[in-house]
Write a structure and sequence with these properties.
Order of helices and strands: HEEEHEEEHHHH
Structural class: alpha/beta
Helix content: 25-40%
Distance between the termini: 21 Å
Radius of gyration: 20 Å
Mean pLDDT: 89
Amino acid sequence: MLFSEPDDLRELYSALCGVTLPANIPVFVNTLENVLYMDFNNDISFEIGGKLVVLIEHQSTINPNMALRLLFYITRVLEKRIESAKIYSRKRLSIPWPEFFVLYNGTDPFPDEETMRLSDLFERPEDLGLPEKAKPLLELEVKTLNINEDRNEAVVKRCQKLAGYSAFIAKVRYYYKEKNDLKEAIEKAVKYCQKHDILEEFLEIHASEVLNILIFPII
């Protein structure tokens, strides 16, 4: 919900990549929701100027299989974008450059940044007595960033909503330690953030939804 508008996605991408994305470059949201035949739901997917497609996932637990999940997602995004008959054409197709990110804010130790690779999951052909392969012929890399409070500050500070989200979750955990009551911790964190101009406008509209979503474990 935080990043459902093109301007917010433009700011988020600029922060993650350390660039300034011009305001005149169009951003189109194409997040997957309950895709036909397979129950795919990804967190954020969007195109920038028709040249770049970005997939972003949020994780509160470390998942070593994210590269495989994102491979499934990008395949579905491209299937939606390109008519299937066109892949049999003699004309060379152009597809957008893909980039993949995971934003991690769990409590298990994790570095500021780490790259997950699809090849990390591959079986090794040399285990069958075959020659060792120099490199995989299929690869997908996922830039994974720790967005907990006081981590990756240079990235978080470039995106106001990302900074606000990190601060909000930190407050939920702080209040949870006081009384071990998650519902009360979320309610107190909402009030604190509204008072201190942290996601104030968003929380004013979506406070009840935030409570329902975050009542699932984040501690």
